[in-house]
Design brief:
alpha/beta; TIM Barrel; 254 residues; eight-stranded parallel beta barrel; 43% helix
Length: 254
C-alpha cells in the first residue's frame, strides 16, 4: 500500500529527531543506473528492511522526469522519506517528500551557486515539496558532478578550506553540509576532514562518494558524519550495502 506524502512528518524534523539518537544511512538511487525497473522494488524492500532512513533519488546525467516519477512511485511503498538529490532543475517532482535545496558552494559558475535555485524555488513552492537547505561541497575526486558543476574541487587533505566553507554554510543558515567525493570515487571523504569540521562548526554533515565497505563507513560515521550515503555499492553488491546499513545503525550519537 502506498503512503501519502501528508502522512509523513516533516522530513527535516524526522531527520533531526532520528539523528539525535544515531548516525543515519541514506540510500542513493540513481535513475540512470537502474537497468531493470522491475528489480527496484526488491532492492528497495531489502534496503528498507535493513533500516536505511531515507531514499535519495538523483543523478547527474541521463535522468528524465518520467523515469524520476516512476522510481518515486515505486519507493512510495515504504514508510521512509523520498528525497530528491537534484543535479539541475529538471529533477523536481511533486511525488517527492522533500528535496535537498543545494547550493554548490565551490562552483566557479554562479548558476550552480544561486542561479538554478532561483529558477527552482517557485516550482518547489508551487508543488509543495519540502526544501532542505544544504550546502554542497565537492571534495577530492569530484567525478561527473564536479565536472558538470564546474567546481574548484577541494583536496582531500585541505582541512582549513573545508572548515571555512562549513562555517560559511552554517552562518548562511544551511541545515546540512553535503561532502561529496564524487560517484565512483577511488577514495572517500577523509575522516580527519570531518573531525576538523565538527570541531569548529555545528552544521550537520552528510558524507557520500567512494564508501564501499563497512570499515570505511564506520570510520566516517565515528569521525562525526551525521548521515552516510551509499549509492554504487547498492547496485554492485546489495548484500554488502545491507551490512553497511546494519553497522551504521548501531553507531550512537554522543
Amino acid at each position: 500500500m502506498k503512503i501519502k506524502r501528508k502522512t509523513i512528518m516533516k522530513v527535516a524534523s524526522y531527520i533531526h529527531q532520528l539523528n539525535s539518537q544515531k548516525v543515519l544511512h541514506f540510500s542513493l538511487i540513481d535513475p540512470d543506473k537502474i537497468n531493470d525497473i522491475d528489480k527496484l522494488n526488491s532492492i528497495a524492500k531489502k534496503l528498507y528492511e535493513a533500516g536505511t532512513s531515507a531514499f535519495l533519488i538523483g543523478g547527474t546525467l541521463g535522468v528524465s522526469k518520467d523515469r524520476l516519477d516512476e522510481i518515486l512511485d515505486i519507493l512510495g511503498d515504504y514508510k521512509i522519506p523520498r528525497i530528491i538529490f537534484p543535479s539541475n532543475v529538471n529533477l523536481i517532482s511533486e511525488k517527492a517528500d522533500a528535496i535537498l535545496f543545494l547550493s554548490l558552494l565551490n562552483s566557479d559558475d554562479l548558476y550552480y551557486v544561486i542561479g538554478a535555485q532561483v529558477v527552482a524555488a517557485p516550482i518547489i513552492k508551487k508543488l509543495q515539496i519540502e526544501p532542505i537547505p544544504t550546502g554542497y561541497l565537492i571534495v577530492g575526486y569530484g567525478g561527473t558532478a564536479g565536472h558538470i558543476g564546474r567546481a574548484r574541487v577541494i583536496p582531500f587533505d585541505n582541512y582549513d578550506l573545508a572548515i571555512s566553507y562549513a562555517l560559511a554554510a552554517e552562518y548562511m543558515g544551511m541545515q546540512f553540509l553535503y561532502l561529496e567525493a564524487g560517484s565512483g570515487s577511488p577514495e572517500p571523504i577523509n575522516p580527519e576532514m570531518i573531525r576538523r569540521i565538527k570541531k569548529y562548526s555545528n552544521i550537520k554533515i552528510i558524507a557520500g562518494g567512494g564508501i564501499r565497505n563497512i570499515n570505511t563507513a564506520e570510520e566516517i560515521a565515528k569521525a562525526g558524519a551525521n548521515i552516510i550515503v551509499t549509492g554504487n555499492i547498492i547496485e554492485d553488491d546489495i548484500g554488502k550495502a545491507i551490512k553497511i546499513i546494519d553497522t551504521i545503525n548501531k553507531i550512537r550519537v554522543d
